[in-house]
């Protein structure tokens, strides 16, 4: 499978972004390749397109399955396994957000709760606990907010995002009205 320059640029960029999304360069390239292909690909197709070993593809597919980003697709009469994205772009983004929450935010919240509940023995520890409480509260708020966003349909989410600065104007107006009252 030969990639056109346009597709290769996109796939390579997805690889560079992979580490920022929470996985390595090769897995990022695999996601990019699968997302822009109209048809599911075999492991050999992926290996040929990315010029990587079949074993590397196999490990990458397992990782992508653990993130729930790919699904196996079977073609009647063909014994090969084909791989395709597990949903729309919005579905994939939601899965990445959810997995990152599980892998990063939840353990941090758990550690913060333990440290906040543990008795402070010095003034320095009391101050540290206050700071940890603020971090905990911020992460809890962001987690609840992102969970609400994930419940929205892609159309609702797009509408919300288009509101942009209008939301802050409404909040400012509300604040002004309630200050006068």
Automatic annotation (TrEMBL):
Keyword terms:
DNA-binding, Transcription, Transcription regulation
Among InterPro entries, the record links this protein to: ArsR-like_HTH (IPR011991), HTH-GbsR_regulator (IPR052362), HTH_MarR-typ (IPR000835), MJ1563 (IPR026282), WH-like_DNA-bd_sf (IPR036388), WH_DNA-bd_sf (IPR036390)
- Listed Pfam families: MarR_2 (PF12802)
Q: Mind telling me what this protein is named?
A: HTH-type transcriptional regulator
Family that this chain belongs to: Belongs to the GbsR family.
Q: Where is the HTH marR-type domain?
A: 31-80
